[in-house]
Write a structure and sequence with these properties.
There is one protein chain. The chain has 280 residues and is of the alpha/beta class. Helices cover 48% and strands 13% of the residues. It contains 11 helices and 8 strands. Strands 3-2-1-4-6-5 form a 6-stranded mixed beta sheet, sandwiched between helices. It has a two-stranded antiparallel ribbon with strand order 7-8. Helix 5 packs antiparallel against helix 6, helix 7 packs across helix 10 and helix 7 packs across helix 11. It is globular, with a radius of gyration of 20 Å.
Length: 280
């Protein structure tokens, strides 16, 4: 008689069976290709309560079991001011998925909204990262892992071009400038969001989205409802109907930059022109 698996075991099994090609293998590829994890690392896996960070937690657990590279993990949840329902949902999902979370609190939602009522999201993200770095370092970690995925990388690249007038990517690992010895890594760098959504639906999971008061207030409102990221998502979806490879092409473009075809570029904050080498 076959062994009956518990729910969390079924979810873990789906990662390395049903979603091996679309989630597990791209995850491992990113770890190896960008050298995200090294022996002796202690990594704070940062969990917001959304689908991306919860999947990341399960992937890191699986990797610890199977990797030949020894490393430690802390599953870090920062409560920036969630309401009781959202806080409870995060803790409930952590229990369901057998993720041993460490929770700490901050007042980031209130501070970000007070400081910039019109556009608090950028400030909120910066404050979150600072608090996560600080707590992770306090716990003896040398890296924090965030749930940014391949679709985030693609969308951010296009947003920079279309709305920011710049060609700028999103790196898979970054050294912190404010917290010495700390790094940020993005292990989902090669995993598409649509595959994360499929994994979530397959396992009947329900996670929280962005739960700040600003998002709750503007959701569903016609006024001031413009979202550059949403528009870019829609554009990519439209282009995919004509070319199924459009996402991969954009992703590969930031790995295949031809500097000698660019009129100007910046490196280490210094601007360079093609004219510097033109006469040479």
């Amino acid at each position: 008689m076959p062994k009956v698996l518990e729910k969390y075991q079924e979810i873990e099994r789906s990662i390395i069976t049903t979603y091996r090609k679309t989630i597990w293998s791209p995850f491992v590829l990113a770890i190896k290709k960008y050298r995200l994890i090294e022996a002796g690392d202690k990594i704070a896996v940062c969990i917001s309560g959304g689908k991306d960070s919860m999947l990341l937690a399960k992937l890191m657990q699986q990797l610890q079991r199977h990797s030949e590279v020894p490393f430690e993990t802390v599953f870090l949840v920062m409560d920036p001011g969630y309401n009781a329902k959202n806080r409870e949902k995060i803790e409930e999902n952590a229990r369901l998925l057998h993720v041993p979370i460490t929770v700490f609190e901050s007042d980031i939602f209130a501070a970000a909204e007070t400081a910039d009522e019109q556009s608090p999201c950028y400030l909120c993200a910066r404050m979150r990262r600072g608090h996560l770095y600080a707590k992770a370092k306090e716990l003896g970690c040398n890296k924090i892992a965030l749930g940014h995925h391949k679709s985030d990388v693609i969308e951010t690249t296009l947003m920079g071009m279309l709305y920011g007038g710049q060609l700028q990517g999103m790196l898979p690992r970054i050294k912190s400038t404010n917290f010495e010895g700390m790094e940020l890594i993005r292990p989902l760098y090669c995993v598409l969001e649509e595959d994360i959504v499929r994994w979530q639906a397959h396992n009947g999971l329900e996670f929280i989205a962005c739960a700040c008061k600003f998002t709750q207030r503007t959701t569903g409102s016609d006024e001031d409802s413009f979202s550059a990221r949403r528009r870019v998502k829609e554009l990519i979806a439209t282009l995919k109907k004509e070319n199924a490879n459009v996402e991969n092409n954009i992703f590969q473009s930031i790995h295949n930059v031809q500097l000698d075809t660019l009129a100007e570029y910046k490196q280490n904050g210094e601007k360079h022109s093609f004219l510097e080498n033109f006469k040479k």
